[in-house]
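During the second half of the funding period, the structural biology subgroup turned its attention to how the target accommodates small molecules. The most pressing case was iron/sulfur cluster, which had performed well in the primary screen but for which no bound structure existed. We therefore specified the complex as follows and requested a full 3D prediction, including the ligand pose.
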Amino acid sequence: MIPTVDNILQNKYLDKDQIKLLLSLDNTEAETLFHRAHEVKNFHVGRKVYFRGLIEYSNICTKNCFYCGIRMDNSRYQRYVLSDDEVLEAARFANDNNFASIVIQAGERSSKDFTLTIENLLKRIHTETDGKLHVTLSLGEQTEETYKRWYDSGAHRYLLRIEVSNPGLYARLHPGDSRHTHKARLKALSLLRKTGYQVGSGVMIGLPFQTISDLAEDLCFFRDLDIDMVGMGPYIEHEDTPLYAFRDMIPSVTDRVNLSVKMVSILRIIMPDINIAATTALQALDPKGREKAIFAGANVIMPNLTPVKYRDNYLLYENKPNVKDQPDETKIALEKNIQAAGDEIGYGEWGDSRHYKRREAKSEKRNFL
Ligand code: 5AD
Ligand code: SF4
C-alpha cells in the first residue's frame, strides 16, 4: 500500500526513500505537504520574511559551468564590475530601507586585486553603516586565507551552492578540468564552516540527467552538512550554454515549479530552523513562484539592488524577471508578495539563521566543558 502524506510525515526522521515519495506526490497531495511545511515554519521560525539586498557586483567569471549564461566563454555579454561608489550606494539604500542585510554576488575570480578590493569594500560598508548592515558573500571557491580575510573584514555569511550533490552528475554539468571539481566545492564548504561563517548552500532543480533520487539526495546532503541556509531554485535553460542542447530532457515549467516548491517544503520539515530563500529563478518561471515558496516554508527574499544599467549583463538564465525595476519598485512588489502569503517583513532585523545560533551555542558549551 502506498503511504499517505500524513503517514510519511509521522516519521520523526525522513529517510531518502520517504523523501522520494514526497517529491513524487501529485498536486492534490502536495497541498497537504505545503500546509504541513507552513505550520512547521510558523512554529520554528515564525511568519517573518527577511530581505537580503542583492548586489550583482560583477559578471566576470573564470569558470565555464555548462548551465550558466555568464560562463567565461560566452562573449554575448559585456563584462562589468561595479565601482566602489555604486556598491556603497546600493548598501546605503539597503541600510536606509531597513533591509539590515545585503548579499554581494559575482562570478568567480581569485586574483589578488579582486580579493583585496572585496576586503576594502567590506571595511567601507562596515564603517559607513556603523556595522548595522550585515554582509553575505557569494563569490565562489576561494582559499582559506581569503575566506578568513573577508570574514575578518566584516562578512559573516557565505553562500556557495553545491549545485548538485551527486558527484557523477556534477561532472556531467561542468568541464572536466581541475577548476571544476565536486571535491573542491565540498572542501570550500568545509573551509567556510571552519572560518566561522553562517554557511549557505543550494542546488538547481530540474536539470537534464537529474533524477528524483538525486534531488532527495540533495536534501539529505543539506541535513548531513548541518547547513544554516539554503537557496535553491529551478534550472532555467540559456541558449548560449552547452546544456541548452539537452533542453528536451528537462521537466516542463509547471513541473519544475512544483518540484521546487516541494523541495522547499520538505527541507523546511527536515531542517525546521534554517533560513530558506524564495529564489528569483522560481519567480522567473511562475509569477506566483515566490509567494508559493514563502507559504511552503521559505523565509528569505533577495531584492535586486544592482544598478539597472548592468542587469541585462547578469543573465544567468533566460527570462530573468524584474531586470528593469528600480530598487524601490522591487521593494513594493515584494512587500505585496509577502503580504499575499500572509507573512510580514522582518525590517531592521538581521534574521540570522536560528539553526546557526543553536549550533554556535552548542559548540560554545562544548568548548566550555
Ligand atoms: N538556471 C538556474 N540557476 C542557475 N544558476 C546558474 N545558471 C543557472 C541556470 N541556467 C545558479 C547557480 C549559481 C547561482 C549563482 O545561479 O546555482 O550558483
Ligand atoms: Fe561562473 Fe558561477 Fe556561472 Fe559557474 S555558475 S559560470 S562559477 S557565475
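Two results from this model are relevant to the next phase. Residues 45-209+226-251+275-364 form a domain with the TIM Barrel fold (CATH 3.20.20.70). Residues 61, 63, 65, 68, 70-71, 107-108, 140 surround iron/sulfur cluster (ligand 2) (CB under 6 Å).
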